[in-house]
Amino acid sequence: MSVDAATVRRIAHLARIAVDDAEVPHLQGELNAILAFVEQLQEVNVDGVEPMTSVTPMAMKMRPDAVNDGEIADKIVANAPVTHDHFFLVPKVVE
Amino acid sequence: MTNLTSLTLAEARDGLARKSFTSLELADAHLAAMERARVLNAYVLETPERAREMARQADERIAKGEGGPLNGLPLGVKDLFATEGTRTTACSRILDDFKPPYESTVTSQLFTRDGAVMLGKLNNDEFAMGSSNETSCFGPVVNPWRRQGSDVKLVPGGSSGGSASAVAAGLCLGATATDTGGSIRQPAAFTGTVGLKPTYGRCSRWGIVAFASSLDQAGPITRTVRDAAILMRSMAGHDPRDTTSVDRAVPDYEAAVGKSVKGMKIGLPREYRLEGMPAEIEKLWSQGAEWLKAAGAELVEVSLPHTKYALPAYYIVAPAEASSNLARYDGVRYGARAGGSNIVEMYENTRAKGFGAEVRRRIMIGTYVLSAGYYDAYYLRAQKVRTLIKKDFEDCYDAGVDAILTPATPSAAFGIGQKVGGNPIEMYLNDIFTVTANMAGLPGIAVPAGKDSQGLPLGLQLIGRPFDEETLISLGEVIELAAGRFTPEVWW
What we know:
Shape of chain B: globular
Order of helices and strands of chain B: HHEHEHEHEHEEHEHEHHHHEHHEEH
Distance between the termini of chain A: 41 Å
Helix content of chain A: 25-40%
Strand content of chain A: under 5%
Oligomer: heterodimer
Number of helices of chain B: 15
Strand content of chain B: 5-15%
Number of strands of chain B: 11
Number of helices of chain A: 3
Low-confidence stretches of chain B: none
Helix content of chain B: 25-40%
CATH topology of one domain in chain B: Amidase signature (AS) enzymes
Radius of gyration of chain A: 23 Å
Order of helices and strands of chain A: HHHEE
Strand order of the largest sheet of chain A: 1-2
CATH superfamily of one domain in chain B: Amidase signature (AS) domain
Largest sheet of chain A: 2 strands, antiparallel
C-alpha cells in the first residue's frame, strides 16, 4: 500500500499537525518508504495467532475506587501557556 | 588523590564507606569534568547547586552512619524522566520549559530512597525517537570515542546518547536510560559502556515521558557490569501507579556478578547472521562465544525464525502507540503554544512547530496505521507477528537455552550527519539486533567486547529469560573479564 498527496494531508489533519503544501511530496516519499518496508509482514502466516495484548502475562490489578489526590489546582496549571483563575485558556471554540 | 571521575560506581561506593573522600568531593569532581566536556553536549541541563546540596546531605548521613545503597553517588538522568521542579523536556521544543510538579518513580527510588546525587539531565533523541541522538532539539551528542588518527565527530548512538556519552567520558558514575527498540543497548555498544534493558514490567514507567508504552523500559548505562547490577537493583520494583509494573521481589543483582556460568546453555541464533555483515562483527561474535565456552558454558545453534519481521512490526507498533501517547501535546496544559485563529489551527500549528521531523513522521505513520480501514491490515497483523516473535524465544528457552548471544549492533559508531536526510529505514536498521527483545518484553544487556579496525568499541548482546537479569549479569561479566575495560582517550 502507498499513500498519495491527498492522504498525506488527511493523515496530517487527523494527527493535528499543520503541513505546508511544499512539504507534502517529501513527506509522501518518506511515509511510502516506511510503508514499503513494513509491507513484508504480509508474507507472515498469522492464521489462528492471537495478537499480543499483554507483554508480561499478568492479571489487571484492581485498586479501591477512592479519591487519593486533589486540591492541587496551582500545580496543575503551573506549566500551562495561558491560564486565568485555575482555568486553561484556549481560542474561542463556540461562536 | 585518586581521579574521582574514573572510579567505577562500586569503587566510589566503597571509597565513601572507607571515608577516602566525601560525596561533595565526588560531586565537585564530576561537575568540573562536565564543565570541561561541554563540547560533547551530553548534558542539556546541569544542576550543580542541587547536586552539591544533595551531596552535603549524603555526607551528613555518612557521618551519622546512615544512608541507602547509593548514598552520595553522583548520577546523570536522561531528560525523559520527570524530575520535580527541574526542567524536563524529552529534548523536544514542545515541552518548552516544563517543570514537573512530581518525580518519576525510578528517580525517586535512586535519589530520595537510596541517596544518590543528581548531576543534571542528559541529552536524548526527541521523545527517544532515534538511534543517533541527532533528533534532539538541543543538538547532537558527540561520542567521546574517535576513529584512530581522525577528529571526525561520531554519534554516541541513541536514543540514550547523552547517558552513554556521559558515562563513557566520566561525566557521571552511571546514568538512567530508557529502551524502546534498543535505546539503552545500542548507545552502550557505540561508547564502550554497559547497558541493561530489564524485562518489561521490571521498572515502573510512572513519570517517564511515554513513547511506546508496551515497549518502553528504564534501565542503567554504566562503565561495568557490576555497576549495572547495582543501579538495576535501585531502579527496579513494583509501583502501584504503573499497572504494568510487576509485583515481584527485586533480587540482589550484584550477587550474580562472579557467579559461575558453567553448564549454562547459550543459544546462537542463525537468523542474526546477516548477509553482508562486516567481518569484524562476525569475528567479535565468535570470540564472545569462545569466551563463554572457556568459562564452561555450552554453545548451541538456535533458530528464531521470525527475527526479520521484528523491525517492520516494530515500525507499526511503536509509531501507533506514539501517535496516541503524543496526542497529549496540544499547547493547552503545558509546553509551548503556537497561535491560531481557532482551536484546531492552534493545535496544528503548535504540533507542527513543537515536534521535530522524525517525531512528526512517526506520529503520521502511527495515525495512518490506526486509521479506519487500515487497523487490521497493519496494527492487528503487527501484534500477531509480535506473538510469533515472542514464541520463537519461548521455544528456545523451553528447549533449555539459558540466554542468547548476538552482536549488539550491525556496525560501530558512525559520523554525525552521515545518515541524516536519506531514507529513514537506513537509520532504523541500527536496531535490528536489539528490537526483538523489546517486541518480546525480554531483558537484554550490551557489553563492550572489542574494537573495530579503526579503534572504535563494539558490543555483544545477551538476551535472557523473562525476569532473569541475573543470568545476563553473570554472563556479561565473563565477557567483560575477557575483553577488558574500554576507556576513550580524553581529547576534549
